[in-house]
Amino acid sequence: MHGRRPTMTSRHGMVAAAHPLAAQAGARLLAQGGNAFDAAAATAAALNVVEPFMSGLAGMGLATMWVAAEKRVRVLDFVPPIPASFPAERFSKRSDLERGALAVASPGNLAGWCEIVKTHGRKSLAEVFAPAIALARDGFALAEFGAAEFEENDPLLEKIPALYPAWSKNYRPDGRPMHLGSVLVQSDLARTLSEIAEKGPDHFYRGALGEKVVAHLQALGGSLTMADLAAVKMVWREPMAASFQGLSVHVPPPPCEGFQFLLTLRLLDGIDLASKPRDGADHLDLVYRAIRLAAGERIAHNNPSPEKLAEIMSDASVERLRRRLTDGQPVTGPTEQWVPQEQEDPAHTTSLSIADKEGNLICITQSLGSPFGSGVVVPGTGLCLNNFLYWADVQPGSPNRSKPGDALPMCMSPSLSTRNGKPVLALGTPGSYGIMQTQAQAMVQHLAFGLPLQQAIEAPRARLWDGRLVEIENRVAPETIAELVRRGHEARAFDVGWTMRCGGMQAVAIDPETGVFTGAADPRRDGYVATP
C-alpha cells in the first residue's frame, strides 16, 4: 500500500531471496517436501543462474541456521583458507588482485551447499539442483537489476583481452549486448550442474571438472592447483552471540568479521534510541558513531583469538567504547581495511533467508567477490570464478598481512536471532564492508523503533567510508544531514533514495506464538519473497 511492498506471510514456509526466480526455486523445494536446508541449496544454486554477477558455485559463503531437531544454532563456514599456492610475496596492493587468474581463491560454495543438504536436508542433489538446471537450460529474461549489471560490467571486462572472449561467449553468445528482456541461456552451466548432481561435489574438487578449471587458470598464469581444490574442507563452527533489544543475535565467529555487527549492537543496546525522532540527527549520529567505533575494533584486531574476542566484546570494553560513543567528539577512522582504500570496493554478494514449517531457519550470504568475480569464465563449463584473493590483505606493514594457508577473514555476516531460546529472525545482506553497517541500521529500525520487517528494510540507510565520510540515501531530510555535518560527520546525500551501496537485505521472521512466517525483500535489488 501507498507505494510500499506488502507484508508477506505464510504458515507453511518462506523464502526471501535477491531474485524472484531464485525465491521460487526454494519455494518449489518446500512444496515438494524438502526442508529449509534443501530449499536453501536450491535457492543458492538458482542464484548462480539468475545472478551470475553476484554469486555461484565457484564462490564462497557462510550460513547461520537454526536446526529444529537439535534445538540449536549452527554455523557452516565455506570460506576456504588462502590457497597454499598463493604467491603472496608478489603483491603489495589490493588492486593487483582485482581481476584475473591470480585473484581466484579456492571455491567453497558448492561444497557448502552439498554439506548443508547432506547434514540436514532430505532431498537428493538432483532434486535440489533441478530448478537451477531448468533455469540455465531454458533461459530467463533479464529484469531491471540484472540488465543494469550486464550493461555496467560488459564494457569494463571488454578492456581485459585475456578474459573477455570466454566471458562474452558464455553470457552473450550472439554478440549482442544484454539489456532488459534479453534471454540468458546457459547451456554449459546446466550441463555442469547436471554432472555435479550425478557425480557429487568431488567431480569439482577432485575430478574432471576441477582439472578443467585448474588447467584454464594455469594457462592464464594463475596459481591454483588441484591440491588446493582437494584441500577444501567445510567447517562447522559454534556461533557467537550478543543481546540487542531482547534478542540474542547470532553470527559466524572469526575469521568471519561479523563481530563488528554484534559490537555495534552492544554499544547501541545501552542507549534509549526509541525516545529519539526516527531518522533524525540524534538517532543517526549515534548509530553512525557506533558503527565506526566497532569497525575500528574489527580492523585493529582482525581474526582475533578467542581470548582477544572475549576482551573486545566484554562489558568493560563496551563501556569504554560507549563513553566514546556519547562524548560528542567526532569519530574518525577506517571502515574497510588497515589503510585507506584506493577506490570503492566493487563487492558483489547475495543473501537469502528461509524458514520451513518444521521450525528450521537459515540465512546464507555468498559471493563471487567483485561483479563477475575474477572475470575468468572457464570455457565449456559456464563457471565464472571468484576473485576472493582481492580480500586478502597484501598491504606492507599491515598487522593482518595474509600469507598462504591463512584463514581468509570475510565481511559476510548472516545472522540468526532467537528470543527465549526460540528462533525469530534470519537476516542477511550483501555489501562488502558495509554488510555489518547496514544490518545494524535495519535492526535498529525493526527492534528499537518497532517498524515491521519489510518497512525496516525499506527505511533509508547509509554507507560509512574511511575517515569521517558517510553517504546517506537522500530520503533523509537535508536539514538532518546538515546537522550531522555540524556534529563532525562528513555527511552527504546519495543522488538517489535507494542504492545497493546500502545493501540488498533479505529476511524471514517467525512469530513463536502463532507460527506465522513473515518475509521481507529489499527493493534496492530484485529481491522477492515466495511461499510454498
UniProtKB/TrEMBL annotation:
SUPFAM superfamilies: N-terminal nucleophile aminohydrolases (Ntn hydrolases). Pfam families: G_glu_transpept. Residues 326-348 are annotated as: Disordered. PANTHER family: GAMMA-GLUTAMYLTRANSPEPTIDASE (PTHR43881:SF5), GAMMA-GLUTAMYLTRANSPEPTIDASE (AFU_ORTHOLOGUE AFUA_4G13580) (PTHR43881). Gene3D superfamilies: 1.10.246.130, 3.60.20.40. GO terms for molecular function: hydrolase activity. InterPro entries: GGT-like_enzyme, GGT_lsub, GGT_ssub_C, Ntn_hydrolases_N. It comes from the Bacteria. This is Gamma-glutamyltranspeptidase / glutathione hydrolase. Keywords: Hydrolase. Coiled coil: none annotated.
